[in-house]
Amino acid sequence: MKLTLVGPRSVGKSTVGKVLSKILGIKYFEGDKLMHNALKKYGGLDKVIKSRKTHLIAERAFSLIKSILNNKKTILDLAGGAISSRKHKKISEQILKLIKRESKVIGLLPTKKMKESIEFLFKREAKRKHFKKTNKLDLKKEVRENYLKLKNKLKEHSDIVIYVNGKTPLQIAKEIIKRLEEVN
């Protein structure tokens, strides 16, 4: 079984991925951590993003994801920007085709309601270490833009969409397993 968890920043992909990994006994790969390691000579993922050198991410993303999905049993968590980048649209389309072909795509979204989803993500983002110094209005605007860019694409291309608000990571993992059993 190969699963790719995709969703907006701070929706809980990594936490859910780790729980799923333990339950299913499948190796888990955290996309951000893999990309950070691939970009170490440039200062890591955060530094590359903040310095607006995202072409470095785009140049490495496809081959990195492909190498992970070559494993027979894999859970990969993938940032939503990997499939929804407007700046690197061609690579995003290639990544989307790859994950759909090689894995079951699990979309994680906060809620069915847009306003609630943006508020959910904003509250989580505001608590993250690398956004502590970010102007809150700018952060909320960024959260909104990223969510709007991703939500419909995620709904359209995911094999399963799970709404996470009000659920524990264990409940989300069990819901994913149940829904996968229903699909297969």
Protein topology:
Layout: E1 2-7, H1 13-24, E2 27-30, H2 31-38, H3 45-50, H4 55-69, E3 74-79, H5 81-84, H6 89-102, E4 104-109, H7 114-127, H8 136-157, E5 160-163, H9 169-183
Parallel strand pairs: 1-3, 1-4, 2-3, 4-5
Brief overview:
The chain has helices spanning 13-24, 31-38, 45-50, 55-69, 81-84, 89-102, 114-127, 136-157, 169-183; strands spanning 2-7, 27-30, 74-79, 104-109, 160-163. It is α/β, with parallel strands linked by helices. It has a single domain (2-179), classed as P-loop containing nucleotide triphosphate hydrolases (Rossmann fold, 3-Layer(aba) Sandwich).
Polypeptide structure, described:
With 184 residues, the chain is α/β, with parallel strands linked by helices. The protein has a single domain, classed as Rossmann fold, CATH 3.40.50.300. It has nine helices and five strands. It has helices at 13-24, 31-38, 45-50, 55-69, 81-84, 89-102, 114-127, 136-157, 169-183; strands at 2-7, 27-30, 74-79, 104-109, 160-163. The model has no long low-confidence stretch (mean pLDDT 88).
